[in-house]
Write a structure and sequence with these properties.
The complex is a heterodimer.
Chain A lengths: L7 H29 L1 H10 E8 L6 E2 L5 E13 L9 H9 L3 H10 L8 E7 L1 H9 L7 E11 L6 H4 L2 E3 L2 H5 L11 E3 L2 H5 L1 H5 L3 E8 L4 E4 L13 E4 L3 H12 L5 E7 L4 E8 L13 H9 L8 H4 L9 H10 L15 E4 L2 E4 L11 H7 L2 H11 L1 H10 L21 H8 L8 H6 L9 H12 L3 E3 L4 E5 L5 E3 L4 E4 L4 H16 L16 E7 L7 E8 L6 E7 L9 H19 L10
Parallel strand pairs in A: 2-10
Antiparallel strand pairs in A: 1-8, 2-3, 3-4, 3-5, 6-7, 8-9, 10-16, 11-12, 11-21, 13-14, 15-18, 16-17, 19-20, 20-21
Helix pairs in contact in A: 3-4, 10-21, 13-15, 13-16, 14-20
Chain B lengths: L9 H21 L1 E2 L4 E2 L2 H19 L4 H25 L1 E3 L2 E7 L2 E3 L1 H19 L7 H20 L3 H17 L4 H16 L3 H18 L3 H22 L4 H11 L8 H14 L11 H4 L11 H34 L3 H25 L17 H19 L5
Chain lengths: 603, 406
């Protein structure tokens, strides 16, 4: 191996050479900056400084299925403090006086929204031009204070839109620490609930940066030429599956009842949610700017719980609407056939040492499965439940989507309780409970709890040959360049029923509305057939909850509607007529829509 | 021990003192508030630190070189412990854990580590019997360096890590290793950068192989160099393309903070304006609008050279560069003259540390180098940095004084 060891003299020469080159580079740089470009830099230093201004991108619009606007943006002003430019004892007292905030709050905001010394920290959003004109005229009095135009979210009011769009708000200090939001900037607006949260990354766009020259008096002179502006990339517009007109109609119809509750409307052929409403609801616009604390207090303290998203997170006993599950399970396991007549109903039946009542004290007599569903006879289903046993029933219920989340594409969904013998073992202790608990479950009372969404999903399966498409809200994305993408529907559950079982159940559901003794015969109409099932959920805290789940037209269903009206008594009295109105509005509207389908965005 | 004071290299001490005093004067100006007519107490603290540094120098020049030699590994261990501790209980700025707070005093362990590595490497490379290109010798000295670099990279402090790496290469060179070997050893990292585009990578590889064939460094060495270059080059695009956009941005910003338009990018713009607007004669002491109106960030620490350029102009910057050049010139002369290998390495390494910080800091104010947070020796505000710079000068004086010794 040849050696390349070099003498000390050579080393000194190399070292001296390198040193000279390095010094030459530095001196060259200084000559260039201090002598050649002196004038240019001198002028910049005389009057101007550079400020880094983030460009907030336009948040994407949220549109309904016919591209009508549900959420858009209005322009407003945001006042910020640039930490590097603020003057102690001057900036904060003056700005808090101008904005009518106390200086401690201003300091807290500035600290919470701190990004870098050179980037403005937002102090207050949603300001009008009056404050800005003061800042513009007297900028010298407000050192380190700057403002920017920012869009504020605006939602359509009075349609319970918050149930699915959610709302936006300033990113919290906890959120910014989570890996999901690590690249977000403190003080920026993010989706807090609903569509706004799930699809925040699609909606928000990418922030840009510009460099502006500020005069010594603090006024913006113009864009700094020395550094390239990075433009903001606007967010994508989202097309929802929601039908805004149907949603508005449903909200108005429900509002007129004066009760709390929920409405879910789904297209069973693809899982698209047409309407999703919770009552009472709050105005999501409250959250867009800065919410006044007293308004927030009022919303939180309201005993009607407007913040509870009832269609996804309201847990209720399903009442008689669950009898279709019990019936389907019994038919499928061959315990009964559609012809079998069970023991007659005399208004109740003795099981062991307890007498179980039917809802109709007059009794229903001897019934097959059609009659039992049509008249919602409890005694028939007590018998079925007893034959089947709890675990078999529970397995079927699980396969039909109960006890687990439906997987809707917005946060906050609850799974509900699905009892089984293991469930009662932990609740009451092993074999310390009566096997007759299944009788209550079979008719939808007791410990089973469901969300209106789960129930709607189950009936979508009954309406669509057993195939349940995952209920979802996002229908399409419109990218800033105008191109768009459709979201494909996916089958999430296949009901554990044969086509024969489903056709028996469908026939029975038709009878509930169209049969001579049907519990929902009051909503019959001449134009098309409706199928459905009423439910009355016992409520230990007061009046029973009223349920109806139905779909229409019976033979080729286009819409499944679930209505839940809290404390409104029997399902046939309140929930069923409400659902019928929603179905009617949709079907008559759909027929009109076929004439011409608008493709442009309507306001 | 009695020493003859008139034989000390006083010119070196006087130049360093001139730079330190200029630093205090500039710190006073940088933190001067025209409305109150006073300056924040940074300059005052720096005066006290200078007194501490001069006291340290007085102690140091009375120590025999052999004693310093003896304490090398002890200091190395101490530096390593402090570097590990600072990761857990240190204070941080801009997300990097860098110093301890001992009452009013901030201690940066990485400055102590610079000294420790200088002494340890000088000693090892001076006393080992292995020839300069011996693989064991290269490996051990590299290991000593990497052990200290790892906790510093974790902080993260790229600037200081680069000082350490350059110190290692520089001492290899000074203790006899041909620059060719150093180029070959560094080459995989160049391959890493060249591989961002396949054309540059191919050109680079052709050049490298030509160089190896021409130099014939031996089969094993040549083989491993080429293999490492290929591996590094292939790995880069593979991993790079798998990183998310923001992860790529984070790495690029780590390598060059000036990329981030919101942090260091702003600093460079303001630094150039300050420097350039000084012109030939400057705007006069306390007259720099960029510094006085506080447009210039970090004007008493990292960007003090920009404040100097604004207020004292091209003449001021040339004087400072001249004074530094004199220190480097004297340092190389001392290193070349020393008869003991240890003292020679020590002097050379001291010059290297001072030079790298000088070059990277001034290059940064001109936008030629990334913003790394390396201070300008003697001038930037900061106690440990000032004491370290003076310790390096003290070592130079000491090496000069004992140049005849073996």
């Amino acid at each position: 191996m040849p050696s390349y060891i070099i003498s000390k003299t050579a080393r000194v020469i190399i070292a001296g050479g390198l040193l000279s080159i390095a010094l030459f580079i530095l001196i060259g740089g200084l000559v260039y900056h201090q002598l050649i470009r002196y004038r240019e830099f001198f002028e910049q230093s005389e009057s101007n400084r550079i400020r880094v201004q983030p460009i907030v991108p336009k948040r994407g619009l949220i549109l309904d299925r016919h591209r009508q606007v549900i959420a858009d943006n209005r322009l407003s002003f945001t006042v910020s403090i640039v930490p590097f430019e603020r003057v102690a004892g001057v900036t904060v007292p003056r700005i808090s006086e101008l904005l009518d905030m106390d200086s401690l709050t201003v300091e807290k905001k500035a600290a919470a929204n701190f990004i870098s010394k050179y980037i403005p920290s937002p102090i207050r959003r949603g300001l009008g031009p009056d404050i800005i004109s003061i800042l513009e005229e007297r900028s010298k009095d407000y050192p380190g204070v700057t403002y920017s135009v920012e869009s504020v979210r605006r939602y359509i009011e009075h349609i319970s839109a918050g149930t699915f769009v959610g709302h936006v708000g300033e990113v919290s200090s906890e959120e910014i620490k989570s890996p999901q939001y690590r690249d977000y900037r403190p003080g920026s607006m993010i989706g807090k609930e609903g569509i706004e949260k799930t699809y925040d990354r699609l909606l928000r766009g990418i922030e840009g940066t510009e460099y502006v020259e500020i005069s010594a008096r603090g006024q913006i002179v113009g864009v700094y030429e020395g550094k390239k502006r990075i433009p903001a990339v606007p967010g994508n517009d989202l097309i929802l599956t929601i039908d805004k007109d149907l949603q508005a109609f449903a909200a108005a119809a429900f509002d007129s009842l004066g009760h709390n509750g929920a409405i879910v409307a789904i297209d069973p052929q693809n899982g698209e949610i047409l309407a999703l409403a919770s009552f009472p609801y709050f105005d999501p616009n409250l959250f867009s700017g800065v919410i006044p604390p007293e308004v927030w207090q009022a919303v939180v303290a309201d005993t009607n719980h407007p913040l509870l998203n009832r269609p996804l997170a309201g847990l209720y006993p399903p009442g008689s609407t669950i009898k279709l599950l019990t019936a389907g399970a019994a038919l499928q396991s061959g315990l009964v056939t559609d012809e079998d007549l069970l023991k007659p109903c005399y208004g109740g039946m003795q099981f062991g040492n307890r007498y179980f009542r039917c809802w109709d004290a007059a009794g229903h007599g001897r019934l097959n499965i059609y009659g039992a569903i049509e008249q919602s006879c409890d005694v028939y289903f007590y018998q079925v439940g007893q034959i089947m046993g709890i675990d078999s029933w529970s397995v079927f219920a699980g396969q039909c989507g109960f006890g687990k989340k439906a997987g809707i594409d917005i946060p906050g969904e609850l799974a509900g309780d699905l009892p089984s013998s293991a469930y009662y073992d932990t609740l009451y202790g092993p074999s310390n409970w009566s096997p007759n608990l299944v009788l209550n479950l079979a008719i939808g009372q007791g410990e089973l709890t469901v969300t209106p969404l789960q129930l709607a999903q189950f009936y979508c399966g009954l309406a669509n040959y057993g195939r349940i498409y995952r209920p979802h809200l996002l229908k399409g994305i419109i990218f800033p360049d105008g191109s768009s993408e459709e979201i494909a529907a996916v089958v999430s559950i296949t009901l554990p029923f044969s086509q024969k079982t489903i056709s028996i159940l469908s026939k029975a559901l038709k009878l509930v509305v169209n049969g001579e003794h049907g519990t929902a015969r009051g909503i019959r109409n001449k134009k098309y057939e409706i199928s459905g099932k009423t439910g009355t959920a016992q409520n230990p805290h007061g009046e029973d909850h009223s349920w109806f789940v139905g779909f229409a037209p019976s033979d080729a269903p286009e819409i499944v509607v679930t209505t839940l009206v809290e404390n409104a008594g029997h399902g046939s009295e309140v929930a069923a007529p409400l659902a019928a109105k929603v179905i009617n509005e949709y079907l008559s509207h759909e027929m009109n829509q076929l004439a011409g389908s608008p493709d442009s965005i309507k306001r | 021990m009695a020493i003859e004071y008139r034989h000390l290299e006083w010119r070196l001490i006087i130049v360093a003192l001139a730079l330190s005093i200029l630093g205090i004067v500039l710190i006073y100006s940088a933190q001067f508030d025209a409305t109150t007519g006073k300056s924040l107490n940074f300059y005052y603290k720096q005066i006290i630190w200078l007194a501490v540094a001069l006291f340290g120098l007085a102690v140091l020049i009375h120590l025999p070189l052999r004693l310093i030699d003896f304490f090398c590994y002890l200091l190395y261990g101490l530096a390593l412990v402090l570097l590990l501790l600072v990761l857990y209980i240190g204070h941080s700025k801009y997300g990097a854990a860098r110093w301890f707070s001992l009452g009013p005093v901030n201690v940066t362990p990485s400055d102590i580590a610079k000294l420790a590595l200088l002494l340890t490497l000088s000693r090892f490379l001076a006393y080992t019997k292995l020839p300069p290109e011996s693989k064991r010798r290269l490996f051990i000295s590299a290991a000593l360096t990497i052990v200290l670099i790892l906790p510093i990279l974790k902080q993260p402090d790229l600037g200081t890590s680069v000082v350490f790496a350059v110190l290692l290469f520089s001492l290899w060179f000074w203790s006899g290793l041909s620059p060719v070997y150093i180029i070959l050893i560094v080459s995989p990292f160049i391959s890493l950068l060249a591989a961002f585009h396949w054309i540059t990578w191919i050109i680079y590889l052709v050049l490298l192989i030509t160089l190896i064939l021409f130099l014939k460094p031996g089969f094993i060495f040549g083989f491993f160099t080429v293999a490492a270059n290929l591996a590094f080059g292939v790995i880069t695009p593979f991993f790079w393309n798998r990183l998310a956009d923001y992860q790529q941005q984070r790495i690029l910003t780590f390598l060059d903070p000036g990329r981030d338009p919101r942090g260091a990018g702003y600093q460079i713009i303001q630094s150039k304006i300050a420097l350039g607007s000084g012109g030939l004669f400057g705007k006069g002491y306390l007259g720099g609008s960029q510094s006085q109106l506080r447009f210039l960030p970090e004007r008493h620490t990292d960007f003090i050279f920009s404040a100097l350029g604004e207020e004292l102009g091209f003449l001021g910057t040339m004087v400072v560069i001249g004074l530094f050049a004199y220190i480097f010139y004297m340092g190389i002369k001392i290193a070349a003259r020393c008869r003991s290998k240890f003292a020679s390495n020590l002097a050379w390494g001291a010059v290297t540390i001072l030079f790298v910080q000088f070059f990277v800091n001034i290059g940064m104010t001109l936008g030629l180098m990334p913003v790394t947070g390396l201070p300008l020796p003697f001038l930037s505000y900061g106690g440990t940095s000032l004491v370290l710079s003076w310790t390096l000068v003290g070592l130079l004086v000491l090496c000069d004084y004992y140049w005849t010794e073996y």
